[in-house]
Structure formats: structure tokens, C-alpha cells
Amino acid sequence: MPGITPDLLFPAEAGQRALARELYALVESLPIISPHGHIDPALLAEDTPFPDPARLLIVPDHYLTRMLLSQGVPPAQLGVPTRDGDPVETDGRTIWRRFAAHWHLFRGTPSRLWLEQTFRTVFDIDLRLGPDTADEIYDRMAAKLAEPEFRPRALFERFRIEVLATTESPLDDLGRHAKLAADGWGGPGGRVITTFRPDNVVDMEFEGWAENVAWLGELAGEDTGTYPGYLAALRRRREAFVAAGATSSDHGHPTARTLRLSDAEAAQLFDRGMRGRADAADAEAFRAHMLVEFARMSIDDGLVMQLHPGSVRNHNRWLYATHGRDVGGDIPQATEYLHALTPLLDAYGNDPRLRVVVYTLDEYTFTRELAPLAGGYAALYLGAPWWFLDAPEVLRRFREAVTETAGFYNTAGFVDDTRAFCSIPVRHDVARRIDAGFLARLVAEHRLPLDEAAETIVDLAYHLPKKVFRIGEPLAPTAPTSEGSAQ
Amino acid sequence: MPGITPDLLFPAEAGQRALARELYALVESLPIISPHGHIDPALLAEDTPFPDPARLLIVPDHYLTRMLLSQGVPPAQLGVPTRDGDPVETDGRTIWRRFAAHWHLFRGTPSRLWLEQTFRTVFDIDLRLGPDTADEIYDRMAAKLAEPEFRPRALFERFRIEVLATTESPLDDLGRHAKLAADGWGGPGGRVITTFRPDNVVDMEFEGWAENVAWLGELAGEDTGTYPGYLAALRRRREAFVAAGATSSDHGHPTARTLRLSDAEAAQLFDRGMRGRADAADAEAFRAHMLVEFARMSIDDGLVMQLHPGSVRNHNRWLYATHGRDVGGDIPQATEYLHALTPLLDAYGNDPRLRVVVYTLDEYTFTRELAPLAGGYAALYLGAPWWFLDAPEVLRRFREAVTETAGFYNTAGFVDDTRAFCSIPVRHDVARRIDAGFLARLVAEHRLPLDEAAETIVDLAYHLPKKVFRIGEPLAPTAPTSEGSAQ
Amino acid sequence: MPGITPDLLFPAEAGQRALARELYALVESLPIISPHGHIDPALLAEDTPFPDPARLLIVPDHYLTRMLLSQGVPPAQLGVPTRDGDPVETDGRTIWRRFAAHWHLFRGTPSRLWLEQTFRTVFDIDLRLGPDTADEIYDRMAAKLAEPEFRPRALFERFRIEVLATTESPLDDLGRHAKLAADGWGGPGGRVITTFRPDNVVDMEFEGWAENVAWLGELAGEDTGTYPGYLAALRRRREAFVAAGATSSDHGHPTARTLRLSDAEAAQLFDRGMRGRADAADAEAFRAHMLVEFARMSIDDGLVMQLHPGSVRNHNRWLYATHGRDVGGDIPQATEYLHALTPLLDAYGNDPRLRVVVYTLDEYTFTRELAPLAGGYAALYLGAPWWFLDAPEVLRRFREAVTETAGFYNTAGFVDDTRAFCSIPVRHDVARRIDAGFLARLVAEHRLPLDEAAETIVDLAYHLPKKVFRIGEPLAPTAPTSEGSAQ
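^ Those are the sequences you sent over. The predicted structure of the assembly is below.
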């Protein structure tokens, strides 16, 4: 990638490094497929200029603010808004300087890598951040951000993004995606598409769930006072999301548990929830049951299911009380997949019409559960290492762990899952470099011929994510063939 | 190994590679000790020619059929028999071509490695499998398989197998092993020996357990209607197995749980089971108790105990319903050893007359439980990485994880555990190469002198498995010495 | 380190090795900060000569005796005392020879490394241990041990130890530390300091807990018959420990569970325990509650809290019955941190006045729980890999696992935690070499500039442990700043 040290992240041993370079060169300039992430669609719908460097890169990035919190610097001093409106630092330059003074904390972290490479590749700034350079970097970035070439759509083109999926709730009116479609940027097959993320109308423990369900009914023109109406409303919204270009749904649950209830049992749970009488076990059972319901809907409408389990939300209660959600207070917990996914897999696990991409925050399931499951069920694919695991060392361990049982073709390709638009190219570049290094080792150890490694890295970077997420054409050799399906 | 790329699997760095070559050269041609596996003894007893290449290498190999299933190709299309006799693909060449069309799925997997090296070293075929070469490879293999040099016993000699253990149930009449003994191939100290695997008469959840127990009584000439008679029958059958050359027993349980019941309690459980009144907890308790009983028997008759816990059998229920057991539908589950093994270890853990070889499908117990246990109890040895873990990356991680606490001499040497006769030499070769690479790194990092690394790799490849499994002479320096035992 | 192979433990690849050498050279001769360990303070208070080589290096080292036990050599044959006074081997030379005959068992283990480098660097003996050299090594060591240069205080100087913390119970009268202070060796800011380890008066399951609590009251001049008096007595003893130079407390619990009870609830538990009516759940709840109490005391008196959870003590019951505690019979168990630490973190997790150093015996929590917690709470620091994990491979995996989420500055620096005085320099040297190798890879992969790697390795070896454990000045850039705290 222009601006990046050529050998960044490649193995040091000369033979492997040469192979890694050769393999990386094949994918370096391939378009970016970003089938899952959290970019605000307004950014591209309105194409408004970005704010100052601090608001662009620091304030919204919980990877950064949590690290400073871990060393005693409270988020308010970095401009993170408070729930009750208590004053926080508002001067971008002050935030930037404060952050720069703690830059050494990020040595060896992906945040250091992403930010540094973003300075270089996006803003053409090759200075090292620090108290002495903070102002110059800030000023040069601020100047660039004022130029038209740094408006979101211009960067989108420059980043060579082919498809970017945002994530919306069924309660979103998809207005911004309509605007994008009107501008020739969105809609089915478009460059910016949406993703159906129903947690706030599925999780009874979500603040305001019952109100959300009522609102869902209004949006969908269905009576969500009853369970059948609730299901009908979800189907309507899925249709609307498909019409806005969605090719997948996403489900963020505390556990991977699935459950198959009878309609009557499910209706009872639903009613108990609507009457505010559901307890934690009811909520867990309903979430688990709905995953199986959504799998059934997916077989009908073709949306690929993504499952993101294992995050204990708002573990840092002081942080949640002061600053709210998604500011760095979530922590992973041990996640069990084998027994949790059984009801879903019993129902549809061998049906190649279904695609379930499973992610994890618990790498200690890679060889024991995830690889054997993905290598044994037609419907399962392994999502890229996620969140706390989305970094060079783990990306490498992921390949080292899952490939021997699941191969490459039961994985779903890299997913950036980011809120930070400017970091998208760097994140994909890092994944491509790690795959190049891993494949280079297989070649150097005579475990894979170079030409097959070359075909594989192109598949991992481009064809696999398109195929698994049903974007464009399926990857021919791995698609369910005319030979028919397993069920 | 003749035919194999000389540096296969060796570290790429030149210094370590040179050391790995030097160490590997010491074990490359050593005889193979295969103390545990699932080769059908009929194969060697009758020495009948092998079937066509597809029936030899693909149809019975669940590593292969599950990978194609994971990409939507049903096992029936690969000739895997159905339980109800529904038609499946029967043409070997069609199966072979279909498999070849999906060969890319196995990039980076041990199956790719094993099969490719089997082509080369056993059949002298150096072509890369694919749609274009499928027929030629098939024809050349089929031609070879018709030659007398490719009969099982001829290959056994060519593979330099010194001892091969098969696995039989106590209900097996051991007729094939009698034939082998009669031919000078079997019996105590013979080349083909058996292993006592009593799961089908111990696990009350096993289909037809009660009938099996009755049958056991008939075979043993004991009244298995009572618990004492049941124990007596098991002792009789162990004697018969020892007479057929067995040096070990094998126990495949869902968990590693052990339990020490009084005879009265055990008898009650047994009776409940025989009356069909045992529940899941009873079955687990009885399995757990019997492990302690078998340990006691081992101290008497010297059979080495193997424990294979942690596999959830038939997790893929559709696959089980359609094709039955052992066709790729099993998945590992988290396995706890510390508390589970306590009753057994309290009873006999410090008694060097007992040898218990513990395997795992859960590598996330290597440093936390398995290495500390094997490094702290005289009776415990660590079995080689098993099944989903039986591949280069994990073999390497196993040494990196357990050596620092358990050393090399509390491990049991490589075990192929395979149903695929032709893959035995390659599997042992892979393990020898990984050990060579690991030891080469210790030498390169000045952690072990080369001469000790040389002694160690020979021990790992040959002396340790013989000693731990009581085949031939014990490995002198590590055997319990005249100094006496710990208990 | 003089006497050690220059490239010991460095990566074999030439470029990384050169970088590792360069980085290691910066820390090779830095003073040793040993903020936690189990050296007997009498050793330095009385400065008495060491016993014979066997009693110095083998008899008290459970890493060594458990390995021989695992191969059938009972600890009595190595001179480990028995509880009931049954005779054990008493001849140092016989023990030494017996040990030397089993030296091959330690290939690839840290014990091999530590002992071999201790021979070289402390005793200037470059022979390889074995039956042929046992006597010569024994005699040469014995001769050295008779010289004044090999008295404990002389070695302390030679080892360049700046600060060494021992570990005492609140029931210790700290007389030896008074002697050390009188000699100018101890006291606040001294070279030998103590650590407050209250397990024997906190854990109701500890033998003689109630008697210990009574004794605690006498020592502290408080009435420990009541819960408030018990808390007051603990505060008094903490004051005495602070006066003896302590900067930290240490807590060894079976689990990491914390709990916040009301004073009334805690008092009830305490009374139940004192009346001998507490069950296992009561004991666990009281331990968990006291951790939160100690955190509160730490905020007042500044003692850094160390938490050592996850060891199942005396798992080998025969060993415990025969030889007692701390002779190699402990085994790690799976340890959960996320939910266990929640009550403590809810109370004080964001308060930078509190420092909690968390250790683990369960490396399968590194990326899932420990790194995210340490990288998200101001009060938490990650302790060095402990006990079974205190070895080169795991030290490397620790950095590879936690750095991406917690960085380097939420770790606490190396801790030797040893009973073996002569192994202290080697253990720290090993950690410095592993960090040099890890940082060298980051530099070689262009992930960190060399000058920052250089600053980092000096911080890890010297500044971080001093800062985290409040020894000397805090490490300026990472100390809670004048900007104020998070809570």
C-alpha cells in the first residue's frame, strides 16, 4: 500500500519474506470488500466534511480512550460525551495533545499500527506522534480535512472500496440508504449497503424493548402486539433491508445459545416480555429461539446470518453510568459453541442454502469447537477474528489454529467491523499481510505450492467475502454445486 | 522418507533447517511403533488386496467426507453407505473425480499432506491431484493395487512397521488375531497385536449395552447378570486379550470423570442399568467408576490404560441418522481433567506400576492441567495430540506447551490412531519432522546441546512409545528404578 | 550475563538475533528489582553460609522433586522431609548423584535452564551435569559455598539486586526484617523488604484459622473476637508491615472471586467461622469479601495488592500426607476473572490510587479476559506469567497474547516468585532475553522503531516494576497525571 513500509508485518526470515512480498503483491491493490462494519451511512449519504482530527480519530475510538483510562486518564478529558451533559474537554487540539502525550502506551498494539499507517497513507504524514509533533500533525491533518479530496465519497473512491455494508436496526427508516440509492451509491448491488441488526427488538433486556417492538409494528404496518404479528413485522423489515441492498443480518448476543421453541411457547415468552414480566432466563431463551427463527427466514430471503456472541456489555459500570454504551467498557467472556448451536444446527446445519458466519472473542475455542464445526456443517463459516482479536498476532494464530481442520474455504474473509472510516484500508492491508506471511510459511515448509498459495490469497482477500456474503458472483469452486445439497 | 520433499515441514530459517535435517536423519528410517489405531485386523490376517483407490482412500476417511459436506457435497455422493440402504454413489472413478474437483478445500490441512505424500511414497505418483489428473492418478493407483507388492502384508514390511496395535471390543472373538498368531504375525511380542476397548460393555448409553453385557458373559463363561460376575468376565476377556498380544486398554468417554464407588454402590448402578432404569447421571457415574476399576485391573495384569475423553459423538444428527457412526459427525467439547481424574489419582496416581496415557481434543488444557498432572504423578503420561489436533501446527504447539512442565519423558510418543493403513508411514514421518524442527529450535536457541537433542528425538520416535506401552524393553533411564516406587 | 551463552534464547533468524542482542545489551547489567518472592529473610538477616549443594538446590525445589516423582522416584529419596519423621535420604552427595542420574528428564524445561546457568554464572562451573560429572560439580560447588564470597549478602551484592521483597504472614513478628533494618539492609526504601500475605488469617479453610485469628489479635493488640476488631488488627499489622518496608500485599486464593458484603453480613460469616460452623461456601464468600476489604485498605495505606488465584493446593494427596505443603503437589485449575472480579472493579476498578496486580496459572484467559480487563481498568495490572507458566515459551506467548490489547504498560514487569536465591539472576535474565526477542521481532516486522523498543525494554526490566510496586519513583509518563483520576 503506498506510504506503508513495504515489509510491514512480513516474517523476518529472508526466504519467507520474499514469498510474502510476492503473494502480497497479488492482493495489495485489490478492491476492498467490507461486508460488516459500523460506519454511519450519513457520512456517505451527505458526504459532509470530517470534523477536526481529534473528533475524527480519537473521541469516537474506544480502543484509544479505554487504553488511556487504563492508565488513569478519564474519557472526559478526551472529549467523550457524558450522559448527563457534564462538561468534557471540547478543544480538539487539547485532546490531541493529551493523547499524543500517552502515545507510548500503544507500542505493540494494533491501534498504533492503524493510526500510524492512517497518517501515512491517508494524510501523507510520516512524522512520529509525540508531544513535539502533536501540533504539526494536527495542523497538517486539519488542513487536509478541509480539502474536497478528503470528503467521505472522495476517500471511498481513493480507498478502492467496492462494497461497504453499514449496520442498522429494523427501527431505522433507511432514509440515508434511500439517499445513497438515489445518488447511485446504494441499493441492491450498490457500493453502500445496509445490514439487518435486530438486537434492540429481539433482546428483552435491551432498554425500551417493548416500546421498540411497538415502533417496529408501526414501521412495518403489522400488529406487533402478538407474536405472529411480531414475526410478520420482522419479515417486512427484512424485505425493506433487502430492498436497500442488505445481504446479511447481524446478531449480537451475550452467548451463542440457540433454542427451538414451539410457536405456542415462543408466543408465551413474547407475551410475558411485553407485559414486562420476563426474567433473565426468559430473555435468554427468547434470544436463543429467535436465532433459529431468523435462520428460517434466511433460508427464505437469502440474508446471510452473522452471529457475534460473547461480549459482556458495560462491564465497566462507572464508565457506562458516566458515558453510556460503546465507549470501551465491554469485556469478553468464555463462549461455548458446541452445545449452544446444536438446536440451530439440528434444524438447518446441513442446508447449504443457509449461511451462518460465526465470530468469537474467545480464541480458546478455535481448534476445539469452531474449526471442527465449520469443517463439518455446510451452513457454518468462521468470521474473521473480532474486536479484541482483530490484530496481527491473533490474525496469525487464527490461521495457524483453524486451517488444519476447517481449511481456508470455511472462513469468511476479513471483516473490519469498524466505526473508523479512515482506518478501513489499513485494517484490510494488515489482514492481507498476515495471510501473505502465513501462506509464505506454508510454501517455505513445502506444504503448499506457490501457485496455489497465490490463488488462495486472492480468494481470501476478494472472492471469499463476496461469495460468503452473497455479494456479486459466488466463488465457483466452493459454491454448492449442481450435485445438490446435503439435506 | 523416500519420495518426500527433503525439507517438508522444517523451519525455514537456514540454521534451524540444517539442524532439523541432521536430527531427522537419525529417525527417518527407524521402524514404526504404532501402539494405538483402528486398522481392521482382517486386513492383515487375510492379506486380501485393497479395493479401488476411492474405496481405499476416500469413502472410509471421515476427514475427507466431512470437509466436502462442509461445502455442501453430501457423503452419499462420495459413496458413504446409508443406514437404510438408500442408494449412494458406487462408481469409484466418479467418487474420485468428484473428490478431485474439491481438492483445493484441503489446502493447508493435514489431509492434503497425508494424501499427497501417500501418493508419492506409497504409489510413486508425483502428480498434483485435480480434475485434469484425477483419472491418471486413479488408473496408476488401481494398477499398483493389483500387484502383490501392494497387498497389506507386503506394505506392512515396506512401511517398516515393527508393531501395530489394532483395537477390539471384549465381544470380539479375536479370531483374526488367532489367525495372525498362527501365521507368525501376532500374539504376545508379535507384529500385530490387539487393544482392549470395553466401551460397548461399560457405557450404559451405548446401543444394546445390556445385550452386550449378556454376550460378554457367554464369551467369558461368567454370569454377567451380577456385578461381581461382570467384573470377573471383564478380567477373563482381558486375559484373552493379553494372550492375543495386547499391552494396553483404551477407553473412549465423553468426559475424563473418574469415581470410586463401593462395591455395593457399583452393584446397584449396574443392576439399575441392566433393568434399563439407569439415567444419564447413572451412566456417567458407572463409566467413571469403571475407569478406577480398570486401573486396579491394570495394576494386576499390566495393561497400559489409554483414556480418550471429550468427543461428543454424532453431534451432526442428520449425518448420524443418514450414515451412522464414525463418518465425521463428532465434535470435541471442553474437557476438564484436574477434578475429573482426582479419584483415580488418589487411588493409584503415584504407583509406577500403573500407566495411564491421557489424550485430549482440547488443547486449551495443555499447560493448565495436562502438563502439570503428567509432571507430578508417576502413573500419568501425555498421549500424542489426537484427531482434530493430529496435524503439524498442533504437534508443534503441543511440544511448545507441555515440554516446559512435563518434559519429553512424560509424553508417550506419536500415535497415529488411524483407520487409513496407507497413511501410517506419512503420519509418523510428519510427527518426526515436527519434533526435529522443535528440537532444532531448542538447539539453535542454545537451550539443548545437539547430542542430547539427538538422543531425545530417537527416544521420542522409537524408545518412548515402546517403553510407555510396554512393548519390548523399557527405556532404561526413565524406567522406575531399583530405588523403588513412590507408593 | 557473564558466563551465559551470549545468544541464549534469542531468535535464530540473523536479523532478529542482532536486534535482540542490541536490545538485551541495554538491560543485561541493570539492577534486579524483585518485588515478589519467597526467599527466607533469615538468609539475609543472619547471612549464614548455605548448606551443601543438594540442600541448597535440590531438596527445597519442588520443580525438581515433582519431575522425579513423575518418573517414579519418591521425594524421600531426594531428602524431602516427611511429616511424621519417617527417615529420608540425608546424604547430600547421594541425593545429588541420584538427581544427576535423572538429569535428562529436564531437557527443554526451565529447571534445566535455571540450574545450568546457575552453575555457570554463580559457581563458574561449565560442566554438563550427569553421572560422570556429578561428584566434580558437587565438590566444586561445596568448596565455593564455604567461601565468604558465597555468603548470602555477598551474593546479593554480586547479583546486583536493588530490592528484594520477601513474603510474611501477619503472624510473623518481622524480627528478621528488624535485624535487616538495624544492619542498614531493610526497612522502608531498604534493599530487603517484606510483603503482607494474610491467607492464614483470612482463609477459614486454612488449618488452625481460628487460632491464627486469636494470635493475630494478640500481636496487634486488638480484640479479634469480633469482626470490627479483626479488621482493626489487620490494619495494625499492615502498618507494621509498611514500617518494615512492605509496598505490597499478596493474596493466594483458589479462585479470583470477589464479593462486597455489608458489615453485618461479613460479621455473621466471621462469627460462623470462629464458631467452627462455616462451610466451604462461607469460606469462599469470606475470602471474596476480604479481597474487597483489602482493596479499601490499600487505597488508604498504599499497599499494592497482588492476587494469585487458581492453584488447587495439595492435589496430590499422598504427597501431602507424606511430605506436607509446597512440595510439588499443587495443580492449576481453570480460572474465571471477568465475573469474579466484578464486585472489586465496580467498587474501585477506575481508581488509580489502587493497584491490583493479577497473576494467572491459566494462560487460556490471556486474550479473552486478562488483557481486556487490564487495558480497560485503571487499577489493574497484569503480573508476570507465574509458576508453571514461568518459562521461556510462555513468557513469549504472554507478550504475543496480551500486548495487542493491554500494551506493555499495563503489565507489571518480571517477578521471579522464587524460593531459590541463587536462581534469581538467571530467572530475570531469561525474562529480559525473551522480551528482547519479542521486541526484536516487532522491530524486524517494522511494527516498532528501534529507539522505542530500547526505551520499552528498559522500562520492562527496571522502571515498570518499581513504578507498579511503588518502589522508588513512579515511571513518569505512565503515572496518573495531574490531569486527575477517573473516579
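The first strand of chain C starts at residue 32 and ends at 34. Residues 473-487 of chain C have pLDDT under 50 and may be disordered.

Shout if you want it in another format.
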